[in-house]
Amino acid sequence: MPKRTQPLRIFLVGFIVLSGLLTSQTMAHAGWWEDYKNGIETFTNLPQEVNELKEGYDQALNKLDQAQSNIEAYRTENARLAEQNALLAQTVEQLKQSEANRAQSARFWKGLVFTAIGIVVLFFVSTRLIRFGLRRR
Questions:
Q1: How many domains does one find in the chain?
Q2: Sequential DSSP letters for the chain
Q3: Is residue 20 part of a domain?
Q4: Which residues form a coiled coil (predicted)?
Q5: Is the sign of the CA dihedral 105, 107, 113, 116 positive or negative?
């Protein structure tokens, strides 16, 4: 046996053994053509699935951008409403204070008027009583 062909024989024997092992597994089940066809179909459908995933990702990204812009709009509106609420609270407080001042002023004037009327009535009654008392004596 020449030394030149020995590595070639070893390679061929190894190749035959490996190909026998690999082909014995695929030959164990029937329908290899269907498996091959299904593999090709799956492989050809991958770009379509990738495109669908990309479109779904783009839609989710658009929805996220829209949600972020809505959140920013809500924050701006919330800040404006908070400022308006503070102004309204200040106005209500001023109205309550002016109402309290008006009520206090009204009580003062009522008391003053009733006191004046009481003094006048007391004056007339006391003068009548004094006249009556002086007539009796």
A1: 1
A2: --TTTHHHHHHHHHHHHHHHHHHHHHTTSS-HHHHHHHHHHHHHHHHHHHHHHHHHHHHHHHHHHHHHHHHHHHHHHHHHHHHHHHHHHHHHHHHHHHHHHHHHHHHHHHHHHHHHHHHHHHHHHHHHHHHHHHHH-
A3: no
A4: 50-101
A5: negative
Per-residue model confidence as pLDDT tens digits over 54-66: 898 999 999 999 9
Q: Which two tokens stand for residue 133?
A: 């008392």
91 domain-assigned: yes
Decide if 18 is inside a domain: no
Task: For residue 30, tell me if it sits in a domain.
Answer: no
Q: Which two tokens stand for residue 123?
A: 């004056």
Structure-block tokens of residue 64: 């996220």
pTM reported for the whole predicted model: 0.45
